[in-house]
Amino acid sequence: MSVIPRIAAQVFKESVRDKVLYNLVLFAVLLIAASYLIGQLSAGQDVKIIKDLGLAATQIFGLFIAVFIGIGLVSKEVERRSIYGLLSKPVRRHELILGKYVGLVLTLAVNVAVMAVALYAVLGYMSWAETEEFRQGWEASATDPAMLAAILLIFVQLMLVTAIALFFSTFSSPILSAVLTFGLFVVGHFNADLRNFENVVDSPVAASLARVLYYALPNLAPFDVKAQVVHAHPVSLGYVALTSGYAAAYIGALLLAAVFIFSKRDFK
Amino acid sequence: MARYAIRLQELTKDYPTGFWRPRAVRALDHVSLDVEPGEVLGYLGPNGAGKTTTLKLLMQLIYPTFGRAEILGRPAGDIEAKRRLGYLPESPYFYDNLTAEELLVYFGGLFGLTPSVARTRASTLLDRVGLGAERRRRLRKYSKGMLQRVGIAQALVNDPEVVFLDEPMSGLDPVGRRDTRELIRSLRDEGRTVFFSSHILSDAEALCTRVAITVQGRLVSTGRLADLAFEVQGWELIVHGGDSAALVGLGLDAVTTVSDGRHVIELPFDRPPDQVLPELSRLRFQVVSLTPRHESLEDYFMRLVARRQAPAA
């Protein structure tokens, strides 16, 4: 067994015992359950609201897990000096980075799955409790499998955010890594605006800079298909594959950069 | 087989300091040192002498500015060399949510041990460092001394040929220090090479076959303890016969009378034996032994530090 799966397994083991993780997942599941109550307040819109809130909770709490545990993967190891013991073992620095990444993605996968099951459970109960006549009024069935596309894209987006957190944590402190990652997450959702920047500014320099930023910064808006799914608009497999491909390329570039920085770094 | 277990050649490390106008601060300055297989080398020096920097260079946690470090004939950081070494970092810290046993099994796995072999080894090592009963407790509940013991255990999980220990006695209570000394002795008896840094000189005196003393990043002295240029601070003279009351008349204050008429006389540095021996002979004392009293390793060390830190004349 290579050292990468061993490091990944250790990250998973360490993460699932982290109280922060328990709290986040518990809170997310409670919020999803509570969306049932909120849905009751709006006649006829309840399933949409539950789906919307449930998917949003999955994304937001997944984001917290990706950032708060992701930044700890490397920067906390450096700060607490546990990295000394690890790097003195027959582990290459790139193996450490990749192992940490795989471990956190595994943790995220389990957590997103738990949240998805909670969401489907609430929606399933909803569907079971309502009359056939009432269900006929829904745009899509409560347990619409198309929601899985939205959940998958949320997961892929979280993989990308994890790579961003890991990248920052290879050269900055945990707090700065968290701030930068959250910042990039927010910017990433408005990235598309940069594309049209040249239409609203006169300066060619500003327009060129906006174009460079558009290509350099992650574009996270395409990962958000909550609205389509909730309103029963189809999300094609091709779209999911293309968006995932973009994420894979970006993740690859981030991990390469993280490995490069980490390999050159002195651990004083 | 490599001739040297550890070899440092002109090893130098500069750290940049300052953000806007960084300048290099030299932490280690052209240190060359060879350690033979089976040796226990004490790497001594005050805080800031470059001990931890040297160990980090050997583990390739930092990269040298100049020079080269080798372990078992391979460059520092080489994976094959890492397979054959163990390292205890200074004030070690591990993963809060793992138990000591899980940590050792995890680290053992990184050396390619199967889980069952790693578990057996973890059990043996945790017993050896006195943590057998605590093996299933999470590390976040461990005291500093317990973490130090776990640190020693994890350094041995791969049955290493060369063991690097950075301040191994740090954070340990007297029992822990005694146990660790015994452990280092047993590592020596097993034929392993041990390179340990310390500023506690009595540990070096008790354990080392050789010491290397570093001050302000430079290696200032190496050698067997018996060969180092310890200054004579006085003499211990044992005489027999004669009248003990006459010794007081000679102005010798530090006299202890032991059994069978023997007297132990502590001669200070400003009263060398050649000034006293003729008088003692005249008073019919017979010399049993004359032994120079050398400065302790601590005194020697402080003298080197003072010399090194004194401003250039």
How is the secondary structure organized here?
The complex is a heterodimer of chains A (about 270) and B (about 325).
Chain A: H1 3-16, H2 19-40, H3 46-79, H4 82-87, H5 93-129, H6 132-136, H7 147-169, H8 174-189, H9 191-195, H10 204-216, H11 226-230, H12 237-264
Helix pairs in contact in A: 1-5, 2-3, 2-5, 3-5, 3-7, 3-8, 5-7, 5-12, 7-8, 7-12
Chain B: E1 6-17, E2 23-35, E3 40-44, H1 51-58, E4 66-71, E5 74-75, H2 79-83, E6 85-88, H3 100-110, H4 115-128, H5 144-155, E7 162-166, H6 174-189, E8 193-198, H7 201-207, E9 210-215, E10 218-223, E11 232-240, H8 244-249, E12 255-257, E13 262-268, H9 273-282, E14 286-294, H10 297-309
Parallel strand pairs in B: 3-8, 3-9, 6-7, 7-8
Antiparallel strand pairs in B: 1-2, 1-4, 4-5, 9-10, 11-13, 11-14, 12-13
How far is the N terminus from the C terminus of chain A? 31 Å
**Pattern of helices and strands of chain A:** HHHHHHHHHHHH
- Return the string of H and E elements of chain B: EEEHEEHEHHHEHEHEEEHEEHEH
Strand content of chain A: under 5%
**Average residue pLDDT of chain B:** 87
Extract low-pLDDT stretches of chain B.
none
Number of domains of chain B: 2
Largest sheet of chain A: none
Coarse structural class of chain A: mainly alpha
Structural class of chain B: alpha/beta
- Please name the CATH architecture of the largest domain in chain B: 3-Layer(aba) Sandwich
Indicate the low-confidence ranges of chain A by residue numbers.
none
DSSP strand content of chain B: 25-35%
CATH topology of the largest domain in chain B: Rossmann fold
User: From the structure provided, what is the oligomeric state, counting identical versus distinct chains?
Assistant: heterodimer
